[in-house]
Amino acid sequence: MQLADSVEVNEQGHLLIGGVDAVKLAEEYGTPLIAYDVRKIKKQIRGFKQAFEDAGVKYMVSYASKAFSALAMYQLINKYGLGCDIVSGGELYTALKGGMPPERIEFHGNNKLQDELEMAVDEKIGTIVVDNFREIKLLDHVLRRKHASIGVVLRVTPGIEAETHQYIMT
Q1: First to last CA, the chain
Q2: Could you read off the pLDDT of 154-165 as tens digits, one per residue?
Q3: If you ran DSSP here, which 8-state letter would residue 98 be given?
Q4: Quick one: which of 13, 63, 115, 149 is 20 to 30 A from 94 by CA?
């Protein structure tokens, strides 16, 4: 069986994640348990940054919070100078508590609430990504009421229909 390069099996047949016995992790922390190999994450970060630097390309590596939104992850990506994208007020709150500089946060998602947009504006995050007319009107209302401005990116869809619920259709 082919395993990821940071995953091994020890003599007892136990899964090792980043050299740590998963059975011992489960005994110590209980299950279910999510375990990440921080060395592997750091290696990936360095690899992406190096590729852009070697190419001479201006860049910002951004972490997709939907993968794992936790204080420790935000602390790690902040330490390495990454940005992050979030899709909810909860992720925004967690990113800020984890030390993410607001200017390196992008707020994605196609169903933002007014309270979430107000929080993003109040926290002076870097960018709000809008992708529908309702959200443009809602953001305009929030910005006018708060006498504020914020970076905005418009995400345009090519008009291809996907058979899914309208609230999650992108």
Answers
A1: 36
A2: 988 777 777 777
A3: T
A4: 149
25 φ, ψ to 5°? Answer: -60, -45
Interhelix angle 71-79/38-55, rounded to 10 degrees, is 30
Domains within the chain, CATH numbers bracketed = 59-154 (3.20.20.10)
Taking the C-alpha atoms of residue 129 and residue 103, their distance in angstroms, rounded to an integer, is 14
**Is the separation of the CB atoms in 6 and 18 below 8 Å?**
yes
Contact partners, residue 44, CB within 8 Å, separation at least 6: none
Q: Convert the pLDDT of each residue in 28-81 to its tens digit.
A: 999 999 988 999 999 999 999 999 999 999 999 999 999 999 999 999 999 999
Torsion of CA 108, 113, 114, 115, to 10 degrees: -100
CB 85 within 8 A of CB 107: yes
Measure the CA–CA gap between 10 and 27, rounded to whole angstroms.
17
Helix (H, G, I), strand (E, B) or coil at 42: helix
Under 8 Å between Cβ of 48 and 85: no
User: What interhelical angle do 89-97 and 114-122 show, nearest 10?
Assistant: 20
Length, in residues, of the chain: 170
